[in-house]
Specification:
The protein has one domain (3-150): Gcn5-related N-acetyltransferase (GNAT) (Aminopeptidase). A hairpin with a 2-residue loop joins strand 2 and strand 3. It starts with a strand and ends with a strand. 32% of the residues are buried. The protein contains five helices and seven strands, in the order βααβββαβαβαβ. The longest helix is centred in the middle third of the chain and has 15 residues, at 82-96. By secondary structure, the chain is α+β, with helices and mostly antiparallel strands.
Length: 152
């Protein structure tokens, strides 16, 4: 059974490898080890028997908007509720920060819909566009779907 917890600096290498697996497929933005070390406090991990089997982070984009990013599950661990546990933990962090809107860009729309998100137009997130999208090689032909969940 995977346990979700805040990431620690000694998790960087395993987080890097998990993110890189998805980045190599072009479905997640790559993150360097150096960057991960600097922003490790924004990450949560799912750990099972000392191995990180899931990862996700929360990035503040504005006073009332955060993004779930770098959400991924290791091969062989999908379909076990680990992604939902990670999302629930990140939503709790958003509530703790008193932020009411949580967004993500994803290819996994059904997963996010099952976790209370709804599909929205990417154009409503200029904060995201100017924070990350301008650096993405897909920026002019982005095929990710924007999802949003409002917290009460």
């Amino acid at each position: 059974m995977a346990v979700v917890r805040k990431a620690r600096i000694d998790d960087v290498e395993q987080i890097y490898k998990l993110i890189d697996h998805y980045a190599q497929q072009g479905i997640m933005l790559p993150r360097s080890r150096e960057l991960l070390s600097r922003i490790i406090d924004t990450f949560v991990v799912a750990e099972e028997d000392g191995v990180i089997v899931g990862v996700g982070s929360l990035c503040k984009l504005g006073d009332d908007l955060v993004e779930i990013r770098s959400l991924g599950i290791a091969e062989g661990y999908k379909g076990r509720g680990i992604g939902t546990k990670l999302v629930e933990t990140l939503l709790e962090e958003a509530r703790r920060l008193k932020i009411r809107q949580v967004m993500a860009l994803t290819y996994e729309v059904p997963f996010f819909e099952s976790n209370g998100f709804r599909v929205v137009d990417k154009g409503i997130f200029p904060e995201k566009v100017w924070t990350d999208c301008i650096y993405c090689k897909k920026r002019h032909a982005c095929d990710e779907i924007a999802v949003l969940r409002r917290l009460d």
